[in-house]
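Two entries, shown back to back:
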Amino acid sequence: MTRKVFSLVFIFFCCGSQENINNNSALPQTSIELNDSSTSTSSTTFAPFSTTFSQTITISTTTTSTTVYIQINPVTTVTTATEPLTTLSTTTTVPQTTTTSTTTTTTVPQTTIDVVVSVGSGGSGQSVYLLNGSQNTILNVVLGNKYRFDQSDNSNSNHPLRFSTSQEGSEYSTNVTSSGVPGNSGSYVEIEITSNTPNKLYLICLNHFGMGGNSEIIKN
């Protein structure tokens, strides 16, 4: 296109110059239109040889419109299926354990302890009980044992021995057993020491005051 335009301009220039030389006059402006589909027009003025005339050439240019097609891919829809959450329940069965409590009971053989009783004279000449030959005796007793006070000696005649929670107090008879007649063979009074037995007991005579003296029975 550019080469064609410049060729036309050159031919026109040459023709115009020859006519100008022959006529020796000013040339009118000549306009050449190139009919082509155009959207814009530009003008160019040439003054090749002198300032006495001007030539205007109008060149039409064509602007090519290019259409670009853009292909748009269809949108792909992804469907996500949500599965319901499943809860697994596990039950563990623990076997029942039976605990057996064993109570061990130890039986201690019961022991019977003999205490020989006799009647003697105190410092003031008063009759008192002698335990195994001693006055004012402290006898320590043990839980679970029996203590047999033997009154077979004839000095015990008319002096039955008993127990009390206080000196010269009333008779204590719980777990107490008596047998025979004091002063005769086989006569005795026996007491079993249990958890209910008082921690301290005193000796008394059922017929006479003060025969126990300071003798005591202490439970350990």
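entry 2 starts here
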Amino acid sequence: MGELLTLPLSWGSFLTFALMAIVLLLVILFMVTYAIYAERKILGYMQSRIGPNRTGKFGLLQTPADVFKLLIKEDVIPQKADRPLFKLAPIIAFVPSFVVLATIPYAENMYFANLDIGVLYYVALSGLSVIGIVLGGWASNNKYSLLGGMRSAAQLVSYAIPLVISAVGVVLMSGTMNLMGIVERQAGWFWNWNFIPQILAFIVFIISAIAELNRTPFDLPEAESELVAGYHVEYSGFRFAFFMLTEYVYMIAMSALITTLFFGGWHAPAPFLEFIPGFIWFVIKFCCVFFFIIWLRGTMPRIRIDQLMSLGWRVLLPLSLGNIFVTAIVMEIIKAING
């Protein structure tokens, strides 16, 4: 296990973990606040409009104002809803999205937990959020929310498999599931980054990641024109805010994971640029991936549910399996040549 997990169990280590969790939560809340602002401004420019510009200078306080409005709104629970599950669902959806961020190495000496099974830990926990979505859809006692929850479950099953299999190609090349080890394997020039030798895995991974995030063009669980917002149609106030927080925290987490697996993490694109701190390089790459996800929302139409399923099972799954076989064969050939 990682260094932080080998600390003796004592009040001191417990308080350290608690303090680190609070710091991470505050940082993530700040990032989500201005990720929403950035998305609204970017989409505004892409659609030839201004975006938020009234509350605060350049509209910088618009998102905090919207969050405050949600927090003071009345918390409405449908009369025939399953009240315990209705209340619990947003929390179940949010917690895994927050916990997985602890495994991401943001720089060589900047991480919360260095796990030897970091990739497995991430993909295992990230799939738990759909339980909260399905519970929220079912507990609302609303046919539209139930359809949204079931769509989300079907989407996760269809795209989690190619996502995990495509990550296996990176694990085979790196020889480890430790995220720190995967980043260190990509040191040097940018052509050592995994997105070049694993270009097929990268394409499959990023498509599957966007589908898992329920983002355009795969936002079928919400589908306002069909399901009137889907699984959270009956939610209001701070419980609705929890679902929105989950979506953006997962966007941040997935962008960070893509940066780690395929874009060299904190490494510079060339050795002579290593004088710039690694954290800066990580942030630049992270922002590029995050922008790409936003850009897709502004340019791509929503696909049909049958197209969604067909793409996952008939295209991405065979491609991800083929990538594993090719990677394994190439690794064996390289091993035989060097041996």
